[in-house]
Amino acid sequence: MSIAVTGGAGFIGSAVAQKLHSRGDDVLVIDNFNQYYSPKLKEARVHFLLGDSVKLERIDITDYEAVKEAFRKHKVKKIVHLAAQPGVRYAQKAPEVYERNNVLGTLQVVRAAIESKVENFVFASSSSVYGLNKEFPSKESQPVQTPVSLYAATKIAGENILHAYAKMFSLPVTVLRFFTVYGPWIRPDMALFIFAQRIARGEPIPVYNFGKSAKDFTYIDDIVSGVISALDLRFVFEVINLGNAVPVQLMEYIAQLEKYLGKKAEKQLLPAQPGDVNKSYADIQKAKELLNYDPKTTVSVGVAQFVEWFTKYQDPLGLLDMREQ
Fold this sequence. Notes:
Keywords: NAD. This protein has helices spanning 11-22, 39-50, 64-73, 95-115, 150-169, 191-201, 220-232, 250-261, 285-291, 299-317, and strands at 2-6, 27-30, 55-57, 76-81, 120-126, 173-178, 181-182, 205-207, 214-215, 218-219, 237-242, 248-249, 267-269.
C-alpha cells in the first residue's frame, strides 16, 4: 500500500515525500511539473531529495481518470494533498488557473480517494484563509469568510469540499493551515528566495508595506513533522494550524538573510500589495494537543540553513537564472 503525495515535486511536497520514504513508507509522488516556475528546480528536488526509489506519476490532478488509475495501480491508502497553484499576486494574471487547480483539482483528488477507499486524507490549506480577521493569534475556531486574495478563497473552497466529502463518505480528513513556510528548496517566487537572488545580483529588494509586516515564519522541517503526525493519526474531520507561533518582523527576517549571505540589501520600500496579509500569528495549541506538534527552529537557524543550500546549489542548478513571476 502506498502513500500518495500530490505536488510531490514541490517545496513542501518533496520534503514530505523524502521524510516518508526515509522511514520506510512506500511513496507515490504525483506532479505535473508545470511552468509556473522553472521545472528545473522541481526535477532537482526529485533527483536530490527522492532519487529513483520513489514512484513518480507525471499527471495533472484535474484529470480524474488519470488520478484514479494512479491510485488503483499503486494501491494508495493514504493521501497528502499538497498540489495547488500557489502565490497571491499571480492570481491577478491567471485567476482561472487557481479555480482549476485548487478547486477542481481538489475535487478530483478526493473523488479518486473515495473510489480507492482511502484510509486517511491530509490537505494543505493556508494561513491566508484568515483574511481580514484582526484577532491574534489566529485560532481554527475563527470564521474564514473574509479572504483578501483569490488564492485564499480557493483554499477555503478546498476545505469546504473536503468537509462535505468527509461527512458524506466518512472519509477521515485533516486540514492543515500552513503559516509562511520557508527553508531549503523553497519556491523561487517566495520572498526569501527573491531577496537572496537579488542580493546576490546586487539588485534592490522589494519590501512591501514599507517593511511593517510581521509573519509567523515556519521552517520546513517543523511543517513536515506536523504533516507526518496528521498522516499517522486519523480524525473524522479536523482543521489544525501549523505555524511557529512567533511572528517575526519582515525587517528582522531580512537582517538574518543579510547576516548569513554576508551582504547588505538595498531595500526598495513599497506600499502593500493587493491580496497581501500583513500579519500572521498562529495559535498552535490544537496542534500540540492532537499532533504532539512542537516547532523547534528559530528564524535565525532556519535562514542559515536556507543560505547554506542557496549558496551550494545556485551555480550547479542555475537558480540565479530563475526569474520570479
